[in-house]
């Protein structure tokens, strides 16, 4: 059942807590109500700050423990059972034994290559996890900073909020329900420095809601912009900004 007062649904909408009929009615209302749009953007930023600020840091020794266990845990090499049966088979199995032994040696060599490949994959996964953890901590640090200031804007059909911490000299751009970029394109963030645009990184084209730690220092920037660029980004903007907002004081 659709609520009669659509203005009261801003918080539930930001939390994705509306039923399909309520969400459709509210989004239709949102298109023509600036007050609700502002509230949704502010609620969205608040939800992001609360969620990311509660990130739990893993123990520093976890990475070393994972890498150590990878080197200690082994699988049974292919052909090991066959080799044992041949060893017990006596003279009648000598001819077969030579072939089986050769097969086992080849299998062991293949297993060795597989083990190296598995180790490298595990190492890459650990490194990616550590990088993601550091990124989450940096984002949470900006959002939870005592001096964090925010400013909101509508962007690509969704709501965007810029959060800046002067003490950390970093900025986070959080978006919710942002339309995907055209095929082969990506959203790129920029700092405006004295009339020049400085790249601040790319947004993930596959995510409609995300919090991006902008690359580079905020100091000296008067505002930020969002443009649509070719995949991989551009050194300078190649399209008109789809969103512009000043850096909150």
Number of H/I helices: 6
The portion of residues forming beta strands comes to 15-25%
Strands across the major sheet, in which order?
1-2-3-6
- What is the tally of beta strands? 8
How many domain regions? 3
Fraction of helical residues: 40-55%
Unreliable residue stretches: none
Radius of gyration equals: 28 Å
The run of helices and strands is HHHHHHEEEEEEEE
Global structural class: alpha+beta
Mean pLDDT: 74
Separation of termini? Answer: 43 Å
Biggest pleated sheet: 4 strands, antiparallel
Morphology: globular
What would you note in describing this structure?
This protein is of the alpha+beta class and 249 residues long. The chain folds into 3 domains: 6-53, no CATH class; 62-142; 149-246. It has 6 helices and 8 strands. It has helices at 10-14, 20-30, 34-53, 62-72, 80-87, 94-143; strands at residues 149-155, 158-165, 170-176, 185-193, 196-202, 210-213, 223-230, 243-246. The strands form 2 sheets. Strands 1-2-3-6 form a 4-stranded antiparallel sheet, covered by helices on one side. Helix 4 packs antiparallel against helix 6 and helix 5 (80-87) runs antiparallel to helix 6. The chain starts with 9 loop residues before the first helix and ends with a strand. The model has no long low-confidence stretch (mean pLDDT 74).
């Amino acid at each position: 059942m659709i609520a009669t007062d659509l203005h009261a649904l801003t918080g539930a909408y930001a939390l994705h807590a509306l039923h399909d009929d309520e969400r459709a009615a509210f989004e239709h209302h949102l298109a023509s109500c600036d007050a609700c749009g502002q509230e949704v953007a502010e609620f969205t930023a608040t939800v992001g700050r609360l969620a990311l600020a509660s990130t739990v840091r893993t123990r520093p020794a976890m990475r070393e423990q994972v890498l150590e266990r990878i080197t200690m845990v082994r699988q049974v090499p292919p052909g090991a059972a066959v080799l044992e049966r041949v060893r017990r088979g006596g003279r009648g199995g000598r001819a077969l034994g030579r072939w089986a032994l050769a097969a086992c040696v080849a299998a062991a060599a293949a297993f060795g290559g597989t083990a190296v490949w598995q180790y490298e994959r595990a190492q890459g996964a650990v490194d990616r996890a550590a990088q993601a953890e550091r990124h989450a901590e940096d984002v949470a640090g900006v959002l939870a900073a005592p001096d964090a200031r925010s400013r909101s804007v509508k962007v690509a059909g969704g709501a965007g909020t810029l959060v800046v911490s002067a003490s950390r000299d970093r900025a986070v751009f959080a978006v919710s329900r942002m339309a995907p970029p055209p095929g082969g394109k990506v959203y790129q963030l920029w700092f405006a420095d004295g009339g020049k645009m400085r790249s601040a990184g790319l947004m993930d084209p596959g995510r409609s809601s995300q919090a991006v730690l902008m690359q580079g220092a905020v100091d000296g920037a008067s505002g930020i912009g969002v443009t649509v660029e070719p995949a991989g980004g551009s050194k300078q903007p190649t399209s008109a900004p789809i969103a512009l907002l000043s850096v909150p004081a």
